[in-house]
Amino acid sequence: MRKSHKSEIFHSAEEALTNASEILSAALQTAYQSAENPVSTQSPVIMGLAQLIENAQALVDAVLERNFPTDPSGE
Questions:
Q1: For the purposes of burial, counting CB atoms within 10 Å of the CB of 1, is it exposed (0-12), middle (13-18) or buried (19 or more)?
Q2: Inter-axis angle of helices 43-67 and 13-35, to 10 degrees?
Q3: How far is CA 3 from the centre of its chain?
Q4: 26 lies in a domain?
Q5: Is residue 51 in a domain?
Q6: Which domain holds residue 52?
Q7: Could you give the residue ranges of the DSSP H alpha helices within the chain?
Q8: Total structural domains within the chain
Q9: Nearest to 28 by CA among 65, 57, 59
Q10: What local confidence, expressed as pLDDT, does residue 49 receive?
Q11: Mean pLDDT computed over 24-32
Q12: pTM for this predicted structure
């Protein structure tokens, strides 16, 4: 019988959310750079994608701040 080995890509929720935040940040930068292309006819679509990325980033940031505050005293 073969044992199933679970591969963990993160060790904690905070680590996963931090990594997701970094990925979203890179995606947002890529979207902005792509939208700045003066010959692109897709700039409005790309800016729409950038808005979706910003919304996802805001959700991740809110969860990180609520569950893993940088200042535990709340000050």
A1: exposed
A2: 160
A3: 33
A4: no
A5: yes
A6: 43-67
A7: 13-35, 43-67
A8: 1
A9: 57
A10: 97
A11: 97
A12: 0.77
Burial of 31-40, coded b for 16+ CB within 10 Å and e otherwise, reads beebbeeeee
* C-alpha span between 41 and 47 (Å, rounded): 12
Confirm whether 25 is domain-assigned.
no
Tally Cβ neighbours within 10 Å of residue 53: 20
- Amino acid symbol at 62: A
CB atoms within 10 A of CB 24: 20
Q: Which DSSP symbol is given to 8?
A: P
With contact defined as beta carbons under 8 Å apart, do 49 and 30 qualify? no
Kindly state the greatest CA–CA separation across the chain: 59
At residue 22, does pLDDT exceed 90?
yes
Residue 63 DSSP SS3: helix
CA distance linking residue 5 with residue 13, whole number of Å: 20
Contacts of 32 (CB under 8 A, 6+ apart): 50
Q: Does 22 fall in a domain?
A: no
